[in-house]
Amino acid sequence: MIKTMKRERCIVVTFGQRLRYLREEKKLKQIELAKLLNLESSSTISQYEKLNRIPDANILQRLADIFNVTTDYLLCRSNNRKEEAHTITGTGDESFEFDKSIPPEKFAKKL
Questions:
Q1: Taking the model in full, what pTM does it have?
Q2: Which of 31, 48, 86, 95 is the most exposed place for a label (fewest CB within 10 A)?
Q3: DSSP-derived secondary structure for 23-73
Q4: Which CATH number belongs to the domain containing residue 46 in this structure?
Q5: How confident is the model at residue 83 (pLDDT cuts 50, 70, 90)?
Q6: Does residue 64 form part of some domain?
Q7: Is the dihedral of CA 38, 17, 14, 70 positive or negative?
Q8: Does the residue 99 lie in any domain?
Q9: Does any domain span residue 95?
Q10: What is the per-residue pLDDT across 18-76, written as a single tens digit (0 to 9) for each?
């Protein structure tokens, strides 16, 4: 279970708490996760979970891949584990209008 701090009706979850929750959810020990990331020691995972160390972008992406979540979810910028896909289909000859209620960042090109 994720421990949280309540502040003015908001629940604050840290990167370290989220990482530990995801690791335990997959029933992985710190040493097992460290091996998946090709890290020399499980102490690095412990430091991530305790917020004594922050992973670089490469490790962060690999963590997201291992846990099948977005980096935004890992970094507590979103509570959605996976981003919803928005697909536009057609021949290209049709005219259409975008739904203005969908934020522009949802239209980011995915490779």
A1: 0.66
A2: 95
A3: HHHTT--HHHHHHHTT-S-THHHHHHHTTSS---HHHHHHHHHHHT--HHH
A4: 1.10.260.40
A5: confident
A6: yes
A7: positive
A8: no
A9: no
A10: 999 999 999 999 999 999 999 999 999 999 999 999 999 999 999 999 999 999 999 99
